[in-house]
Automatic annotation (TrEMBL):
GO MF annotation, one: phosphotransferase activity, alcohol group as acceptor
Name under which the protein is recorded: Carbohydrate kinase
Domain Carbohydrate kinase FGGY N-terminal: from-to ranges: 3-249
CDD domains documented for this protein: ASKHA_NBD_FGGY_YgcE-like
Similarity annotation: Belongs to the FGGY kinase family.
Length: 505
């Protein structure tokens, strides 16, 4: 039996999961790590804290599995959105912390930067608007950290940085991460000089774009083997941006598939056969790696992380109780939410805690509760947070249908998939059956499938999907709740519009 290691390195924590070549999970380990917020709107992380957590997870997973390490034939990496690692000529980080993908420190200079950009050209070349992601932070650093910026020789995503740590013979980036860096052509996913100029960077500062998921880029180094227990014969294989790993792990290869990835961000991938640009620039159009079709890609800066904020800021008692009872605090909070009702007794939550990315892009948007009264309970607040996250995805699904046609089926992944109550809410609000796969940790599975391609266990992504992906549960919408949720959604839309037009300006 041969085994595959899939690493899912997210914004708030990481997992290392060992799989068989049929996609069966053998053992897993998870760790959390912090982000740092030195100023309002700033988000930073310590790359070495994350590396330590990742390596500990790999080592512990191998020990738990009781497999012969020599039978682990491949490792691949699923990484969070573009949290950039800026390296000097000695491959050492220039800045103490990496800058997180949620970071908004560049917002005040964005209007001036936008004047330098031919938006029509930028959209046509890249498939997105300038400033869709936080890459203008590079310009902020050039202006505000000139001395340190002068030492920057390489711009990495966590994909190419971690592959290098495992033992890759160079810096290699997947199409999804390259797309997030906002400097590749939509047509062929290669760096484009016309886009590079807007960020004052040169191609030699960037990793090589590799187009085939699972491409072998090296073997595990002796140092990493000693630290983790992985054998030096283990292939280091190109992985993917977390969303694309989930697309592979969920088998999102059919036209009309709406994949919702509810992690730190709320991510929507709609699979289409057309590279049709959104004239309003709300939707990023990009390739669907490994499957030969296209994605309409939209994300919110805060998906399930809005629920995590609610847990940490408001539910300290529930967190303490969960520790005493050996339970997941989210299970306790969703149970509390179930004592409210659709519409949360008039409470509406806007969950755009770190800016808005949907119908109206607004980096200044912040989270809010509306409709609180003296009778409002914690159950209503919890229900409204869950509904607010669902409403954003409903709004996104409508945009996809407006641009590219009917959503034929919805597939859900992320921590949300572990909550029957929340899965049912998604089905009710979206008015579509919601499918779950056998494996809930799809980022790690997608990474393991890429490792399997590199190790020669699968021919390609389609072959890996046939071997590893199985739909095991379907939540059907409850029509009795349709009107209540639609009424609540209409109220949410009203507050969302008013807040973006009149408050967060």
């Amino acid at each position: 039996m041969k085994y595959l290691m899939g690493v899912d390195e997210g914004t708030t924590g990481c997992k290392a999961i060992l799989f068989t070549d049929e996609g069966t999970q053998i053992a897993s380990t998870a760790r959390e790590y912090p982000s740092y917020y030195p100023n309002p709107g700033w988000v930073e992380q310590d790359i070495y804290e994350i590396k330590k957590a990742v390596f500990e997870c790999i080592e512990e997973t191998i020990v738990k599995s009781n497999v012969n390490p020599s039978d682990i034939v491949g490792i691949s990496h699923s990484n969070q959105g573009i949290t950039m690692v800026l390296l000097d000529e000695n491959e050492q980080p220039v800045f103490e912390h990496t800058i997180g993908w949620q970071d908004l420190r560049y917002v005040d200079i964005l209007p001036e930067l936008m004047k330098e950009v031919d938006q029509e050209e930028y959209l046509k070349i890249s498939g997105m608007q300038y400033g869709t992601y936080n890459i203008p932070v590079l310009r902020w650093l050039q202006i505000n950290e000139k001395e340190k910026w002068s030492k920057v020789k390489r711009i990495c995503s966590h994909q190419d940085w971690f592959l290098r740590q495992y033992g890759a013979d160079g810096y290699y980036i997947d199409e999804g991460c390259a797309n997030f860096l906002s400097m590749v052509r939509m047509s062929d996913n290669e760096w484009d000089e016309r886009l590079l100029k807007y960020y004052n960077v040169t191609e030699d500062m960037l990793p090589k774009v590799v187009h085939i998921p699972g491409t072998v880029v090296g073997n595990v180094s002796e140092e990493v083997s000693k630290a983790t227990g992985l054998p030096v014969t283990c292939k280091v294989c190109l992985g993917n941006l977390d969303a694309n790993s989930c697309a592979i792990g969920s088998g999102a290869d059919e036209i009309g598939t709406q994949l919702l990835i509810m992690g730190t961000a709320g991510v929507s991938i709609f699979v289409t056969d057309k590279d049709k640009l959104d004239p309003n620039g709300r939707i990023t159009v990009r390739t669907n790696p490994g499957f030969g079709n296209w994605q309409n890609y939209i994300m919110t800066n805060t998906g399930a992380s809005a629920f995590r904020w609610f847990r940490d800021a408001i539910c300290s008692m529930e967190v303490a109780t969960s520790k005493l009872m050996g339970m997941d605090p989210y299970d306790i909070i969703t149970t509390i939410a179930s004592h409210s009702k659709p519409g949360a007794n008039g409470v509406t939550a806007l969950t755009c805690i770190q800016g808005s990315h949907t119908r109206k892009k607004n980096e200044k948007a912040r989270g809010s509760f509306f409709g609180i009264n003296l009778g409002t309970t914690k159950a209503d607040l919890a229900e409204s947070i869950l509904e607010g996250i669902c409403f954003e995805m409903k709004d996104i699904m409508a945009m996809n249908q407006e641009l590219s046609g009917e959503v034929t089926h919805v597939r859900l992944c992320g921590g949300v998939a572990k909550s029957p109550m929340w899965c049912q809410m998604f089905a009710d609000i979206l008015e579509r059956p919601v499918e779950l796969t056998k494996v809930s940790e799809l980022g790690a599975l997608g990474a393991a499938m890429c490792a399997g391609i590199g190790a020669g266990l699968y021919k390609d992504c389609e072959d890996a999907v046939k071997r590893c992906v199985k739909i095991t549960e379907i939540y059907k919408p409850d029509n009795n709740k349709k009107n209540d949720y639609n009424d609540a959604f209409n109220v949410w839309e009203k507050y969302y519009r008013i807040a973006n037009e009149s408050i967060y300006v």
